[in-house]
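So, could you explain the following?
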Amino acid sequence: MSALAVWALWVFMVTRRLDQPLLTVGYAAGAVAVLVTTIILLARYRRDGDVSDADRVPRLRRFTSWPVVLGIFGAVVIGVTTTSFLFAGSVLATVLCLVRWGPGVRWRGVVLAEIALVVLWFAERSRLAATVPGAESMGFALATFGIALPGTIALSLWSWDVVLELNRARATESRLAATQERLRLAGELHDLQGHHLQVIALQLELAERMLARDPDAAAEQIRLARASVDAARTGTRELAGRFRGVPLPDELANAADLLRAAGLTVRLDVSADAVLAPADILGPVIRECTTNVLKHGGGAWAELRLGRDDGYWRLSFANDRGPGSALGEGSGLESIAHRVGVVGGDLRTGRHDDRFDVVVTVPAVSILPASTPRPATGEGMPR
């Protein structure tokens, strides 16, 4: 951290003026403690940003965890070695900023911390000037840096949270659009089929009544009913052709949500350009693989990945194998192999101890002709 490097200049001046070289060793120990705390808390902050508040560690335990305790220890050591309550308070406030607070709580805490740091600066300025000759030459710049540090950290974390919220909003908007599209399709399908079925029912009822006294007229009504069936089929195909499929990133996100709801720990890795992948081919594959994981997996974890690799889209599912698992033995993999094989793709499966992998690749640019050779399908997936 740049703050620790800048404050090291102060420690050097204090060490030289007061002839206490052990202060340098103590400061280094405190700086290492704060650095370790910062790395761990930032990693936790990023991890907690991907889960709901209900799934996070309770707030009280966040503040009593060992990284926070280590950071408080480092702040105390830095305060002793620099002979400055201001530096200790700045580090302490920074460590507490790295803990995920409730909405709006962090900024109120930062404002109070900044006020306290300013008060500390005015309180100890004259004391340091008398204790450490030449302190005023560096004190103001270092104090300004220390006072601004907690606010800078809080602003950075706020920016990170805003980016996460924007990503969630985009994902929610995309899913909502897909849901609205499905509802529109359901409504149009209901109207189309309802109309044709009602007409067919009336035509068949009329044919039944006329069958005894006018067979030719009854036959004509049956012919018209058949025509209505053909019209219903044509309308359904046209409606299906107009329906826009769900984008693959949303399909994978829905699959991950379903698996998490079943109690699995899910890791989802989707490339930024995954919306360009063929949803009509890979969408059913995702649904089939998700069903297989739920029915035949061990129920502990799953990994879902989609990305472009050397001119091919690569979709992979991995999960733990349950006792007596039938994964890979008639679990719909034959239909997946046929579906992707038609477009020049490939299906591979692999078993490694308690892990089962399914990897599907399809061309990223164009559909290969049927004569184009493909890698052999089956087990033995390269890792």
